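Work Package 3 (structural annotation) set out to generate three-dimensional models for the target panel prioritized at the project kickoff. During this period the team completed the workflow that converts sequence records into C-alpha cells, so that structures can be stored uniformly alongside our sequence database. As a representative example, we reproduce one entry of 320 residues exactly as it appears in the project archive.
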Amino acid sequence: MVSPFDVSLLRRGDLADEGIGSHALDRMVASSELRRVRPGVYVRDEDVRMLTPEGRIVVRARALCAVSRVAPVFSHLTAAAILGLPVYGWHAVTLDAILSPERPGAAAGVVRHRGQLAAGDVVGVGDLTCTSLVRTVADVARTAGFTPAVCAVDAALRQVAHPKQGNYLTDRAEAFRETAREVVGRSAHGRTRAQRALAFADGRAQLPGESVSRILLAELGFARPSLQVRVEGPRGEDYFVDIGLDDVNSFGEFDGESKYTDEALRSGRTVEQVLLAEKQREDWIRGRTQRRFARWGWAHISSARDLGARLASFGIDPPR
C-alpha cells in the first residue's frame, strides 16, 4: 500500500507539461482516473483508492501545503491523522490548522483555530508541520466527541507507553496523561470534556474497535475491564485476551477483519490456518480459565444495545 506521504501530487502545470490539457483533465476526473484533492491539485486514483480515512486526510493536507505560500501548522483531528492516530467517525472534508494572529484568514476548506503555540508544540512529520502528539491529544480531547477522543487518546498512549517488544509502561502513560492535562489547562474551553476522555483512555487498547467497545461496555453497566489479559498457553507461551470482564468472569475480543484479510498480519498463513489457530487458542483459554468467551466485530458496536445483544448470545450479561 502506498504511504500517503509518498502519493504524487499533480499540479495543473505539471499535467499540462505532460500534454494533458483542460479537456483531457476533465475527462480523466470524470472517469475517476484522477481525483481533485484541492483546486489545481490532483492525485491518481490508484494511489489513494486503498488509503485509510487518515491517509486521505494526510493527502489533503499535503495538497494544501503545495499551494500555500506559508505552510500551515495542522492541528486537532488533522494533526491526529498526520501523527498516526485514528480519526474515528470523522467524515469532514475540512482541515484543521492553527494560524498566526497576523494571518488575515484561512484558506478554503480549512478550519482556523485560535490558540498560542508554546515551545515544543510543533513537530515535522514528512513534508508537513503539525502540533505535537501531546498538544494534539489535548486539543482533540477538548473539542471532539467522547468516542473519537477516546480512540485518539488510547492510540497516543499506546505510542508512548507500549514498545514494540515489551510490556505496557504505566509510568510513561501516566506522565503523558498528566502533561496532556496541563496543556488542556491552558484553554478555557472543553476542560471537563477533556478530563473525562483522558481519565477513561487506556493505551492497552490496540484498535479503535476495542476503544469503542470499552465505551459501550461502560454504558451497559460492566465494571472497567482488564485489558490485554495474559493467559499461559499449553506450552508455556503467552496468550493475551483483549478484554477481561472480571465482574462477570468472562472474556471478550474485538475481531477486526484485518486479522484475517491482511496478508502481513497472517504471517504467511492462509485464512483457514488463522481461523483454526484462533479456535484452538480460544478453546485453550476457555478450558484453562473456565470463563465465558465472546467475540464481536464492527457490526456489533454501533450501539450499546447491539453489543449487549451480542454478549447475551454468549450468556454474558451485565451484573445486576
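Residues 208-312 form one domain.
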